[in-house]
Design a protein that fits this description.
This protein has 141 residues and is mostly helical. It is built from three helices and no strands. The protein has one domain. Helix 1 packs antiparallel against helix 3.
């Protein structure tokens, strides 16, 4: 019974470590999101520069203006992807928290099983003592 309790505790620790790894992945995803957001800001700054060069764009014609629109659309797409990645990171983090809570429950169950094992062990010792008393009585008879 004690070994089972220890095994359950070890499994709980392994699951907890997996939860931490999942949380680390969530943090990595969040860090990637920050990089993507910085790229979006750079794209927006480039868009401002394009607007400042508006006179040149007008002189160069409609083609360059269309390219500016495409760049803006790409920026919006990148921003939308960043939001999706951020949402996935939050989901992963929430899963990590759920796993952590499950680990705590498993650990508590392991402790209860270990306590039951100790109780059974104590009962065994009591039975052994009774048997010794009975043996002594039989010897006295």
């Amino acid at each position: 019974m004690e070994e089972r309790g220890i095994n359950i505790e070890e499994r709980g620790i392994n699951i907890q470590e997996r939860g931490i790894n999942i949380q680390d992945r969530g943090i990595n995803i969040e860090e990637r999101l920050i990089i993507i957001e910085e790229r979006i800001i750079n794209i927006e700054e480039k868009g401002i520069n394009i607007e400042e060069r508006g006179i040149n764009i007008e002189e160069r014609g409609i083609n360059i203006e269309e390219k500016g629109i495409n760049i803006e659309e790409r920026g919006i797409n990148i921003e939308e992807r960043g939001i999706k990645i951020e949402e996935r990171g939050i989901n992963i983090e929430e899963r990590g928290i759920n796993i952590k809570e499950r680990l705590i429950n498993i650990e508590e169950r392991g402790i209860k099983i270990e306590e039951r094992g100790i109780n059974i062990d104590e009962r065994g010792i009591n039975i052994k003592e009774r048997l010794i008393n009975i043996e002594e009585r039989l010897i006295n008879i």
